Amino acid sequence: MKLKKIAAVVSAFAAATTAPLCAVGCGDGEAVNATPKNTDEYIIPQDYCRTYYEVFVRSFADGNGDGIGDLRGLADNLDYLNDGDDSTMTDLGINGIWMMPINMSPSYHKYDVTDYYQIDDEYGTMEDFDYLVEECNKRDIWLQMDLVLNHTSNQHPWFLEAVKEAQAGNPVDSKFMSRYEFVASAEDKATKGGTWRKVPGTADYWYLGNFSESMPDLNLSNRAVRAEIEKIVDFWLGKGIRSFRLDAVPWACANTTAYTEENAEFWTWFNEYCNQKGAELFGKEDDGINAYCYNVGEVWANDSTVKAFFGTKMSNFNYGFGDSHKNGFAGYVNDWKAGATITESLEQMQNDVLALDENAILSNFLSNHDNDRSAESFDMDKSLIKMGAAIYLLSPGNPYIYYGEEIGAVGSGRDENKRLAFNWGDKRNVKSPIDADYEGKQKLGSVKSQKNVADSILTYYRNAIKLRNRFPEIGRGRMTAYAFNSDGVIKKASEIRAEIGSSGAFSEVNRLNKPIAAYSLEWNGRKVFIVHNVGASSASLNLSGFSDYQLVASLKAKGGSVSFKNESLNMSSGTVAVLKPKTELIK
Ligand SMILES: [Ca+2]
Ligand SMILES: [Ca+2]
Ligand SMILES: [Ca+2]
Ligand SMILES: [Ca+2]
Questions:
Q1: Closest listed ligand to the CA of 70
Q2: Which ligand is nearest to the CA of 82?
Q3: Which residue has the higher pLDDT, 94 or 336?
Q4: Suppose 493 and one of 98, 298, 341, 483 were both cysteines; which one would form an S-S bond, judging by CB atoms 3.0 to 4.6 Å apart?
């Protein structure tokens, strides 16, 4: 593995020194490829900062001809995601895969598990899983498994036993009942809150099922449950899983979307156990990283609750910046929120989570399997889709690309419509979930129609991810937001904030602060300065103080140009400029 990486580095370096400027990736991608001083810049650090791809296995690729996506289909199509060669640009370049649940389950989505140690029949066998791990390892892809611990299926053997105990009139702290949440009086239901379901065949027993009748909530403070969770973690990390995506985090030990002491205790226990086990298994191989099993939690709540859960030693999805038409990343691109405001709040978010955990990494996204497809929040406009990709992919953190997002997939309404078949555009297409009723067409095209097209959404995603891989300080860096003062000179946003006070609006200081998002990222002595222009017109920006920087790359959502000379950055509408200190580059 190490040898392969060095070979890739050498060939990328050779291409950069001998070939004309657009050798690594042309088209709408990098306009300039300055030669790095240090060939290290092409080594993708093998740490827990990753570019993740969320995949609904059922809707991705089929390996056995039944039309349902499965693990073998995923494994056999990994070259589309990462071909294992860092010098090629024909793959997306991701290095982490979040697989939505794959454990045995009666449902199409599998968020209700009956056996945590088995692969669901529809998705294949344990041999298929082992093959997938092997293929991911060849490509340095971390596999992240969706783990649903808040509840099991009501067909889980434990719950079937618990129901029998209730029907026999046992007390609520009986062996299996105590592994779930049971009450035996209407009064107790009211005290505890949450959604309670009647146990069939009993007069006065109820169980907690916050999400559904078929999803009984586990009692996560029960010792037998915790011992079983340790076994599950041991089993899957032993099989090669490197990270868990954790479902319904705030619901674990509370009947609301709240950060509570009980939740904090449970998740800290869980994440510390995973990281310690990960260090035992992977520490020798991946020497010196801080989080060997760095999990990510689904805290679908406000920013302050999301932040608080970073205190439990895991990442969390940045819901305040994703999942919305009007706020966050999409809001900036759609011009509903100022660029300087989003970078200022992202800097603040990063500061806050690093104060809770020095190893914290944000998890940014535009949409996931529970949201309308992000292409729809950009009105299916190709340029807006690309600009939306650029702002979150080039922000600090682990971005999560929802499968199909990179080709502008659409789908909204009921859950099944948000999880439609991936559009390969060839015989690899699988069947969509049976209850999907989405009537829109995949107008923006397929992998086939986009893969060799210079201005396609897919090519743009490849180029943006390439930048993440080429400049590791983007994902890992400490962010500082910038804004323009009333004279049009760039300053740290915090300096302008000090002048305008907490309620002041950057856009009133200078209207450039609306279309322009500018920030630096610093990591391990490396620095990068990134500027986005999502405005309708080109911008001429005064980067006073940046004379020792050089333009090293750009992204163009709709053509145009980017140039930097005498501290003046000229950017066409819809472009991104990436600058680095000249001291980090060969003259
Ligand atoms: Ca299949
Ligand atoms: Ca490649
Ligand atoms: Ca099943
Ligand atoms: Ca719960």
A1: 1
A2: 2
A3: 94
A4: 483
pLDDT by residue (tens digit) across 253-292?
999 999 999 999 999 999 999 999 999 999 998 888 999 9
In a domain, 288, yes or no: yes
The residue behind tokens 């209700």 is: 112
Distance (Å) from CA 60 to ligand 1 centroid: 10
279 assigned to some structural domain: yes
Number of domains in the chain: 2
Residue 525 domain flag = no
Place 370 in a pLDDT band, splitting at 50, 70 and 90: very high
Confidence of residue 586 (pLDDT cuts 50, 70, 90): confident
Show which of 298, 331, 359 is a domain's final residue.
Answer: 298
- Indicate whether 230 and 293 sit together in one domain: yes
Give the helix, strand, coil percentages of the chain, each rounded to 5.
35, 20, 45
Q: Is pLDDT at 87 greater than 90 in this prediction?
A: no
Total Cβ atoms within 10 A of residue 230: 14
Domain coverage including residue 171: 157-208
Asked whether the CA dihedral 341, 344, 346, 348 is positive or negative, the reply is negative
Whether residue 194 lies inside any domain: the answer is yes
Residue where a domain stops, chosen among 298, 321, 340: 298
Quickly count: other Cβ atoms within 10 Å of residue 308's Cβ: 21
pLDDT more than 90, % of the chain: 88
pLDDT at position 42 is 60
Query: Three-state SS string across 62-105, please?
Result: CCCCCCCCCHHHHHHCHHHHCCCCCCCCCCCCCCEEEECCCEEC
The ligand with the least distance to the CA atom of 91 is 2
